[in-house]
Every structure is written in C-alpha cells, then in structure tokens.
Write a structure and sequence with these properties.
This is DUF1801 domain-containing protein. With 129 residues, the protein is α+β, with helices and mostly antiparallel strands. It is built from three helices and six strands; from the N terminus they run ααββββββα. Strand 5 and strand 6 form a beta hairpin. Helix 1 packs antiparallel against helix 2.
C-alpha cells in the first residue's frame, strides 16, 4: 500500500480504518496498473492521469467515490455532484460487498469520462471509454 494512503487510513478511528484498509486492498488488487496517491487530502486511484476511484472520511461514514460511476448503471451507487460521479457510503466494514466492489472497479476501467482535461475543456466532460 502507498505509504501516504496507509498514513491516511491509520489516522482514522478503528472502524473507519478497517473500512479504509479493506477498500484499499480490494482497489489495489483490481486496479494493479493504477497510480494511487493522496489527492485533495484523500486517497485516489488514477489510470493515465484520470481519477477513477477514491474514498474519503465524511462526518459519519467513509464515502467511496467513482468519478464515472453514474455511467455504471448500478442501483447501489448514488449520484454525486453535477458531473458523472457516484458514491456509496459505509459505516461498518461488514457493509462492503467484495463482489459488488470488484464489479464496479471493472466498470471503472471500462467506462471513463475525461476528468483529467476538464479544466482545459472549461467544465465539459468527454467520454474516454
């Protein structure tokens, strides 16, 4: 695990740390070619410089965010923001369904919107895959 992500996870409460560690392990296993780092204070995984998935601590949960998730057509993921992102929130480690997470990560590789160039395109998203 990336040392800065491990540090982020270790800074959480024990239950939240368990959620974060579990998410990081599954994400790393399923996105072996992704760059991962702390971006805007949260762990994020990138493919070719494009953000794919990340998680963050909210007041009462850990939010897992897929940047292109609205295009996944998954009922368990809720729309987030005005672009193409979707999320799921966890308050306990046992809420994580490994099979769902693996499916969403597979879709995250196959379905991507170009967030890397969103500023250059003045807020317009284009589909990459």
């Amino acid at each position: 695990m990336n040392p800065t992500i491990r540090e982020y996870n270790n800074s959480q409460s024990s239950s939240d740390k368990e959620i974060c560690d579990h998410l990081a392990i599954i994400i790393n296993e399923n996105l072996p070619d992704a760059e991962n780092k702390i971006w805007h204070a949260h762990p994020v995984w990138f493919l070719d410089g494009n953000p794919i998935v990340g998680y963050s601590k909210l007041k009462n949960c850990i939010r897992l965010l897929f940047w292109s998730g609205q295009s996944f057509d998954e009922e368990k993921l809720a729309n987030e923001g005005s672009f193409k992102a979707s999320e799921i929130r966890y308050t306990a480690p046992e809420q994580i369904n490994n099979e769902d997470l693996k499916l969403w990560l597979k879709k995250a590789i196959e379905i991507q919107w170009d967030y890397k160039n969103i500023v250059k395109r003045k807020g317009v998203l284009e589909r990459l895959k």
